Amino acid sequence: MRRWIILLLLALVLPLSGCGFSGIELKDRLIVQAIGVDYQDGNYHVSLQVFDPDDGGGGAQGAFDASKPNNQVYEATGKTMADTFRQISLQTGKTVFLGNNQLIVLGEDAVQKELNGVISFFSGSHETRPKTIILACDGKAKDIVGLQLEQGIVPSDAMERMVGLAQEAGLTPYSTLMEVARAANSLGETPLLAYVGSEEKENGEGQLQILGGAAPIKDGDTLYFSQLEIRGAEWILGEVEQTTMVLEEGDNRYTAVVQPVYHQLRPKLEGGQLIFTLRLDVVCSIPEAIYTQQTEMEFSHIPLLTQLIEKEIEQEADMAFRHAQQDGPTDVFRFSKYLDRYLPEYWKSQQDSWPQEMSNLQMEWDIRVDIKSLGLTAKNRIESK
Amino acid sequence: MVQPRIDMRQLVALLFLSRVFSVLTLSPKQENTVENGAALLGIALSGIVCLILVLLYQKLLSLYPGDNILDCCYRMHPLFGKFCALGFYLLCVSITISTVGEFQYFLSSAIYPYVSRLLLIPLFLLAVLYSAYMGLEAFSRLSLALGVVVLLSTLLVIVSLSKDLSFVFLLPPLRHGWKPVLQVAFQGVSLNLELVPFLLLVPMVRGKVYRGGIWFVALSVGYYLIMIFYSSLTMGDYALSQVFPIYTMMASAQVVLIQRLDSLHMALWVFIAFIKCSLYLYLSAYCASRLFQGKHRGKLLGASVVAVLAGSLWVSGDLAALMWLHEAFVDGIPFLLAGVGIPVVLLLFLSHKKKKEAPGL
């Protein structure tokens, strides 16, 4: 009896193959690598960059040539997002699979008019990864998704790497589906998206450009931030991992590699005035110094360099804050979360008028710099400050 | 007198896995959503209450070593014993139905949207039936290995998400007073139904069984605390917009080459569901057999699986029924009766009886 039960169970395992009960083979799937969404006249225009080893390279048994683009771009226009995917499925006779998608690129109109709709579609999709990167782009998303970059197996690989490096350096924000959806659904907060564009190289090929950040504000408008303003915002948010700064003092120039080690943002009320204080401790090294008068760096320069870095960070953070405050106002710094956490009574009274109330907000900066090294030469090493 | 069959570590793994089954399907829309600080404190408090209950069980079952709760019920009165055996049987069957229903609902919502429940549930229950038929030792051995893998995979999630923690999302626990904290604590205790299998399994375990109970409570409460802490501090308000936030958190975790840890956790979760259903199906057959002086265990196992199949097909086709069943457990009445009321009554009655039986009195 037991043997028959075992045989029956084994037999029942046979139909449970890898692609699930519906039995969709890999060749019948469109393996999406990047999605572009444009919004015009109330319709969605979706462009899909799809992994296709037969395109350009190819070879026997599904092998592919990494030096070729290995992708196809499909487009469709529809009244809903799902409608556009259905149309692409019908065009190609394949099922759209979003489980491998790395990027969602939103065109200008989509960011301004339909951000929440697009986010809620992808948040509700069981295949889409919560950490898929969302980008806002200058112009149309289909132009970015259609870029044929040759630095990876598929162009979206190269795009993801470029955006990732810029994010680590704080030059563009960490805008994942999860983070953008969180900020969009959070009272008083505005999502900050990585902002990209494209430019033509001398050989006529398109190239991705990291422009900074974009925040959708009221009345269907978007507030754009430059790379330096984004780094300023990232100092406030505490999301810079390691970045390189170029400092100038007279004719002398320095490169500083800066790494934050402590971040604290706290609100306080002083005589009814709301003040946020940013305490930021960074350690840095100065791997490069270009002098006009002398040949090497000296320890006596450290106080001056410390001051320069402090001032530069403060300037960048202040620039980002002023831009968001005066040209928005828009809360891309999670101020509302800090108020809810540390001044709940104040937040309760202001939450309906936030971020308009941000126009009265003041910032105080407490930046502390510790220079650990003046490069790799032994004589320039500082044991302790 | 029942012969010990499993050791303390296997008991801990069995109960722990059975308890953490619900973590992946925890839904903010399903539970009464409270702020994360209050939820964390409430769960910690529920752990303390559960530890006190384990000590209470120790006191009760030490009166007659080798007895489980049903033996104690029969000692009080045979009719009360039969009534309790029927009650525990119904509880075990209901938990199995609820587990299969949740399992099917989650799989068809988050993983295979088009899978037929008529295919999934009978296949799953067939495997569970085989496991329960093989006996407690068989699935307990599997649960120990699986428990270790689950803990390691949880460690992987913790490591991968630690850099994403944002403490600004952590809200003070008492800013809305004690009410939400106590609400969560009550739910935490009432949903800790694994203390009922503990009461039934005590004589079947070798070694320091009550120490095992304490380990089970500490591990399961610790696991819940970690999951809620990480999901709320990595996702913030996004967690509230998700039907299965813990699953979403796992989908967002990635370690080196593994870009989707949710696949790993899904595979483990299927095994966890299998272990939990095996345990409760086995116990339902055990409780039913106590109505017939311990006879007909095999036939009663078959009858139980038919009841579970019918019930789970019904609740999986009717979401309102599944929610109703879940709410019935959240309300706490099943646990208050089986995990608190009956043990307290038995303790009072049997302590008194034992004192009377003591020589020289």
Summarize the structure.
Chain A is α/β, with parallel strands linked by helices. Chain A has ten helices and 13 strands. Mean pLDDT of chain A is 85; it is low at 378-385.
The count of strands of chain B amounts to: 2
Helix content of chain B: over 70%
Uncertain residue segments of chain B: none
Nearest-integer average pLDDT of chain B:
89
Largest interface: A-B, 27 and 32 residues
Mean pLDDT of chain A: 85
Q: Give the fraction of residues assigned to helices of chain A.
A: 25-40%
- Distance from N terminus to C terminus of chain A (CA atoms, Å) equals 79 Å
**Main sheet of chain A, how many strands, which sense, barrel?**
9 strands, mixed
| Secondary-structure-derived class of chain A | alpha/beta
Question: What is the radius of gyration of chain A?
Answer: 25 Å
Strand residues, percent of chain B: under 5%
How many discrete domains of chain A?
A: 2
Assembly status: heterodimer
The helix-strand sequence of chain B is: EHHHHHHHHEHHHHHH
* CATH class category of chain B: Mainly Alpha
What sort of overall outline of chain A do the alpha carbons produce when their principal axes are compared? globular
Give the C-alpha Rg of chain B. Answer: 21 Å
The CATH homologous superfamily of chain B is called Hydantoin permease
- Which sheet architecture does the biggest sheet of chain B show? 2 strands, parallel
Residue runs with pLDDT of under 50 for 5 or more positions of chain A: 378-385
